[in-house]
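Checklist before submission:
- one chain only
- standard amino acids only
- sequence pasted in full

Submission:
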Amino acid sequence: MTDQPIPGVTPPNWGAQLLEWIEDGLDSHAVAKFLAKCEADQGDVSMLIVGDSLTAIYGTPWTELLPVKIGERFPALTVELDQWNGDNSPWPNPGDYGGAPVTLQTGTGANTLRVWNGGAGGTNTRFPLHQLDLMVRAPNPDLVLIAYGANEFATTATHTPDDIRAAYLCLTESIKHAAPEASILCISQHPIAAPGGADSFMVAEVVRELCELRGHGYVNMTQVFADLGADMDDYLQDGTHANQLGQDLWTDTLWDRVFSRRVRAPSAELPSGFEAPAGRELLVNGKFASFAAPPALTGWLASNVTLAKDTVNYEATNGNAYSVKMTSTGAGIAVVLQAVSAPALARLKGRYVTLTARVRVDTPAASDTSSRGTVWLYDGVTFVKGLFDAWTQGKFVYHAVTLKVSTAATQLTAYLVCDDAVAAGTINQWDWASMVEGIVPGWGV
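Returned file contents:
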């Protein structure tokens, strides 16, 4: 037996083959349940697409072309497309699936593949969180395609991988929580002219890593376009959005790598971190059970904010019949904060921690870009600030931030931010907060 090459025979490139198998696994195994259901033709099938203007309507978009190709593979299915009826308007008017569905194919059988395109221009990973019931639960998807990235930088001040990962995980974990039977396929976006190509590649790598971590599918559209080299401009209409050539490339890539493949064994996607404990709890009284004598909240320090029990706006996911209502006084940044103990800090140095909260923001002006109803982490070296947006108002949503605690950390403090604009009268309600070791948002025990 020899490992020497056989004359005249090109040896296999096992490294390249292994990479192809790995990428193939990330691509096609994630849609196995969806394809099997289409093939079985024993009931209706639902696919949801969420994203920004790259998934909205430009020419004949890939979000329409891909369902047509899927229908051609499964001719028994009638294929219908529902387009999100609205743009990036703030709450309470963000849009809905109000229009009549468009029939893309009339099948030979009795069942329907209904595709819900929730793409809206100018949005980011925060957008679907404001309407999980309407956008995710109502379609009851078998498969969810997620394509965000470019607009994360509009509200992410530091542009770090940890920022992007926390934002993406808030979305993917929320979707799995809202539709636990759905499979998820994340698609990185093609490189864009702004805020810069390097950021596009950073987002692509972060998304790939989290898909591996959570068992989701992944398609690296960033690299597909980058491989075009100088010809990439021919596929973009304005340096950002795909023209028809670009839409066709999106479609062909997804078809070739994912939807044209044989039905495989499904990947083992993990359940949402919001379904089960994500780790050991690092906060004291994170479920706010000890709140017998407002405005004192056991374990927490309130600064420039008044606290009260809200028995109207609450979810009871914390086991209480109330939420903690915060109202800013206008005297300074309005926060409630808690620092971990010195022994805990010593143990956590050099490790990742994630702070997650379930919060409802009352309705400030749509133009308000301050941090209202979000979370921060600070270790004495680095401040990590969560995202605020104009969409997730009037509803309870998840907010999360991740920080790798510095080896030179002097503290580890969790901030629940009512308002950082030094304005009086800002109101938000907090159902619970939790900090655990690791990068996955969730609650601890």
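Reviewer check: The chain has two domains: 17-259, 301-437.
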